[in-house]
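Kindly inspect the following:
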Amino acid sequence: MTSVFPLPSPTLPEFTTLLLKGPYHASAPIHLCLTHLANHPGSRAVLLTPSRENFVAALRDFNEDWLNECGGYGAVSQVLSRVDVFYPPTPVQASLFLSMLREARPETAPSQLEIESPCLVLLHEFSSYFLDGETSGSHCLASYLSLVAHALTTLKSLSEQASRLVLMDSRLDCLNLPVLEPDIHGLVAADLEGPNSPYRVAFLIHHYFEWVGTFESGTAHSRNHVPM
């Protein structure tokens, strides 16, 4: 059973690909990894998020009682030690990481981009690449879509046990990107009209995932055929 809350709590349906968006709580990715790995002894999870500073600050500000009380327990700590967290600072580096991620071979020690027995890849707050920072306005629709496509390709190169992809992005519904890069052929902001008007990324991202859940006022709702 996989959940974004401490157990016992409502659980997510069985999934291969899952998108969670909206104002979810800061500890949601921790609980998702923890509950998923608890059902897969010996496996690992890979979590990619753009900023270590933002990730840690959000957890500190949320200050969840359950994590404060139980996070240091031996059983919980042991499971959390099987979560490998990486902080690629740009979408190019995130894409490169995903394209190079491999499952470690049993006969050799894993290298930096080889993970032993991964069963979950979690992409966290990727809209930050396109909404924050000095280069946020230099990207196009394909910039975000290619990150998800690289992640899906990575899953195919891993074992069948590793065929789980989760994208958690609280600001996805706020992300609008042009079809073409703004600086191509001398385009400026005033030219981004008609066919190249900013496009809502969430409309296309939905089609990459088997399940889509939206948090609204702290409650998750499913867009798939069966309620979560």
Remarks:
- DSSP finds eight helices and eleven strands in the chain.
- The chain has a mean pLDDT of 83.
- The chain has one domain: 17-222.
- Helices lie at 28-38, 52-62, 65-70, 74-80, 91-100, 128-131, 141-157, 201-205.
